[in-house]
Write a structure and sequence with these properties.
The structure holds 2 protein chains of 2 kinds.
Chain A: H1 2-19
Chain B: H1 37-48, E1 55-56, H2 57-63, H3 69-82, E2 85-87, E3 93-96
Antiparallel strand pairs in B: 1-3, 2-3
Helix pairs in contact in B: 1-3
Classes of the chains: A mainly alpha, B alpha+beta.
Chain lengths: ~20, ~100
């Protein structure tokens, strides 16, 4: 479960970076 | 930024053919927001999937019978690299970041 949260956070980060 | 709205593409597929394996990267001439058709199909299915554990790869395959596994895999890889989706319980289940 912690893993999922991490994956999600990482994914959101990637998304944010792409739109930065 | 966000591509609004629940873009639910009703059922699965219809179009056959177009058997080219999408090359990753390169000059994108995709129809929607820079994604290829396959990628947006996959993304839409994942977005539309209600369960918290996410959509499984198997499920994706059965939803997109016209695509072969490697095409789906590539789409999933791409989407996850871009941050549109992420894996949940294992590497075979995916959720969309802009769902919820």
């Amino acid at each position: 479960l912690e893993r999922i949260e991490r994956n999600k956070a990482a994914a959101l980060l990637r998304l944010a970076n792409r739109h930065a | 930024n966000k591509s609004s709205g629940p873009l639910i593409t009703g059922n699965s597929v219809g179009a056959s053919g177009m058997g080219d394996v999408g090359s990753l990267g390169g000059s994108a001439s995709g129809p929607t927001n820079g994604l290829t058709l396959h990628q947006s199909q996959v993304l839409n299915l994942i977005k539309a999937y209600p369960k918290p554990e996410g959509l499984s790869f198997q499920e994706l395959r059965s939803q997109l019978p016209s695509l072969n596994a490697s095409v789906i895999k590539q789409a999933v890889d791409f989407l996850s690299n871009e941050g549109h989706i992420y894996s949940t319980v294992d590497d075979e289940h995916f959720k969309s970041t802009d769902a919820e």
